[in-house]
Amino acid sequence: MRAIIQRVTKASVTVGEEQVSSIGQGICVLLGISADDTQRDAEYMVRKILNLRLFEDESGRAWAKSVMDRELEVLCVSQFTLQCILKGNKPDFHAAMPAELAQPFYSSILESMRSAYRPELIKDGKFGASMQVNIQNDGPVTVELTSPAAPTDSKQLSKLEKQQLRKEKTRSKGSSESGREKSSLRSRPDPSASSGAEGDVSSDREP
């Protein structure tokens, strides 16, 4: 799961001509759910989003208070394009969770936020709609979050990920072989060098 979190002075979501939600000072969260995300990812994101220290404290000390500490608002917007994988210059969204699964999963994340914080301060866009999101970034302050990856299972790796792994192994193997060749060259005797047994050529110089 990926999230883009922006500290804002105000933000709003409009669908068509209707403004469906708006907040004042707080944070706007663009949230992208992947096909492999679990409840563990959701819990991690909720905890981090609500506890990120993006605000000043009463004495003006930066990065000291979270949105909960300051009792500010949160606007959360579902953003499947954060799970984009580029194929050349074309975005591919197969890594995103299908809409029929993502909608209840996303709703459960919102409910978790409301349970952990104050329900009236958690606002939402409109899932699946074409939205206009107006964000007045404060700072600007923008933080990217990614939930911890699960243990790698080769069967679940995408074709692109497998290709990347092969490239990394090839580069690593090439570097190792190059190192062995250099070591072999260093240890190979140089026929033009003095062995010491034939005497030091420097002693044959004319006075």
UniProtKB/TrEMBL annotation:
Tagged with keyword Cytoplasm: yes
Catalytic activities: glycyl-tRNA(Ala) + H2O = tRNA(Ala) + glycine + H(+); a D-aminoacyl-tRNA + H2O = a tRNA + a D-alpha-amino acid + H(+)
EC class of the enzyme, as a word: hydrolase
EC number(s) stated in the UniProt entry for this protein: 3.1.1.96
Gene Ontology molecular function, alphabetical: D-tyrosyl-tRNA(Tyr) deacylase activity; Gly-tRNA(Ala) deacylase activity; tRNA binding
Signal peptide region: none
Domain of life from the UniProt record: Eukaryota
Biased composition annotated in UniProt, kind: Basic and acidic residues: 156-167, 178-189
Chain spans, region Disordered: 142-207
Cellular component annotations (GO), alphabetically ordered: cytoplasm
This protein's UniProt keywords: Cytoplasm, Hydrolase, RNA-binding, tRNA-binding
InterPro entries: Daa-tRNA_deacyls_DTD, DTD-like_sf
Primary localization class, coarse: cytoplasm
SUPFAM superfamilies: DTD-like
Compartmental location: Cytoplasm
Pfam families: Tyr_Deacylase (PF02580)
Protein family (similarity comment): Belongs to the DTD family.
UniProt-listed NCBIfam families: D-aminoacyl-tRNA deacylase (TIGR00256)
Protein name, as recorded: D-aminoacyl-tRNA deacylase
The species this protein was found in: Poecilia formosa
Taxonomic classification: Eukaryota, Metazoa, Chordata, Craniata, Vertebrata
